[in-house]
């Protein structure tokens, strides 16, 4: 691969929205490092993933010593490990050689790194001070990290299931109508906003283009959210300001550097929990919007003529199936 310009690399590899820690403190370094690594054919995304894990384990080795200088070195190594963890995905997108196994490896190694560093950091402090609160903090860090990613996976799966249920019923209704025109695809407002953050959600659109809004209740209750989201997205920062990434960085970088392990872990944990509860609440409102949209299909029984099954019973069974979507079905991809 020839010489690449920094702007070209950023355009091809940086996500449209990302964690503020990644956007401000990682991407500026990761994209420059990527420009160098991309020139070498032997450097593969999986190789970078392994390097990130080894540096993370090295950080754990320094954390367990518990003194101020080793803690600072461990924090530095953890940050470099996270930079490489971002580089592997960017390298895969740039070269187009990402694999399903590589995505799995990256996910598993992330969890291994968090587990090892949590045990080492808190265990080292317990051995140094004898304070049992550090053992509880280790369990809390591992639990919150697990909760964050399990919750994200399940919400993603349920959102995809709701969308597919709507798309299926919309297609059946249009087919049953037999208008002779090509069926108009269902458009989701969240997709339009992702492509154009400045789009007015309340703008009137042509009736032949169905636009489904699964976040209407949330926007109605929090009208200020759209302005905040727009301001953040303009800088590629996602509104989820304290996610698993910020939580990890607080515990494994900020806390060791300032020597306040327990207070920083407590504050970061509370903030992560607060944002997770907000996401769950938003998802709950979205399920109510989903029910409202599905009920609207009941007002168009022509869709039932396609199969002879009443629409109401049909969409209820679809919703039942969506709730019991099996793990590993592929819906988790793209988180």
UniProtKB/TrEMBL annotation:
Keyword Transmembrane belongs to the record: yes
Transmembrane among keywords: yes
Database matches in InterPro entries: CDP-OH_P_trans, CDP-OH_PTrfase_TM_dom, CDP_ALCOHOL_P_TRANSF_CS
Transmembrane segments: 47-64, 133-156, 237-258, 264-284
Keywords per UniProt: Membrane, Transferase, Transmembrane, Transmembrane helix
Domain of life: Bacteria
Spans annotated as Disordered: 311-335
Coiled-coil boundaries: none
Protein family (similarity comment): Belongs to the CDP-alcohol phosphatidyltransferase class-I family.
Protein name listed in UniProt: CDP-alcohol phosphatidyltransferase family protein
Record organism: Streptomyces huasconensis
């Amino acid at each position: 691969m020839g010489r690449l310009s920094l702007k070209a690399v950023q355009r091809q590899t940086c996500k449209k929205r990302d964690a503020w820690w990644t956007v401000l403190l990682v991407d500026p370094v990761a994209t420059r490092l990527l420009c160098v690594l991309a020139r070498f054919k032997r450097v593969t995304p999986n190789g970078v993933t392994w390097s990130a894990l080894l540096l993370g384990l090295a950080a754990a080795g320094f954390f367990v010593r518990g003194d101020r200088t080793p803690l600072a070195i461990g924090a530095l190594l953890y940050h470099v490990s996270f930079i490489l963890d971002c580089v592997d995905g960017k390298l895969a997108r740039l070269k187009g050689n990402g694999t399903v196994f590589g995505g799995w490896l990256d996910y598993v190694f992330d969890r291994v790194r968090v587990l090892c560093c949590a045990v080492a950091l808190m265990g080292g402090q317990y051995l140094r001070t004898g304070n049992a609160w550090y053992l509880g903090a280790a369990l809390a860090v591992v639990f919150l990290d697990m909760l964050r990613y399990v919750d994200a996976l399940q919400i993603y799966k349920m959102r995809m299931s709701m969308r597919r249920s709507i798309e299926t019923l919309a297609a059946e209704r249009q087919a049953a109508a037999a208008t002779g025109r090509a069926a108009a695809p269902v458009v989701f407002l969240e997709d339009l906003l992702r492509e154009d953050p400045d789009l007015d959600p309340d703008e009137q659109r042509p009736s032949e283009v169905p636009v489904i809004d699964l976040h209407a209740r949330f926007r109605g209750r929090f009208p200020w959210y759209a302005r905040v989201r727009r301001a953040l997205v303009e800088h590629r920062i996602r509104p989820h300001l304290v996610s698993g990434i910020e939580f990890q960085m607080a515990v494994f970088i900020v806390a060791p550097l300032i020597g306040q392990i327990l207070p920083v872990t407590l504050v970061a944990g509370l903030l992560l929990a607060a944002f997770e509860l907000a996401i769950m609440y938003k998802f709950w409102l979205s399920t109510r919007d989903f029910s409202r949209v599905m009920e609207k299909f009941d007002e168009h029984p022509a869709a039932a003529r396609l199969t002879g099954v009443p629409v109401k019973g049909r969409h209820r069974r679809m919703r039942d199936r969506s709730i019991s979507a099996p793990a590993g079905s592929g819906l988790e991809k793209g988180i």
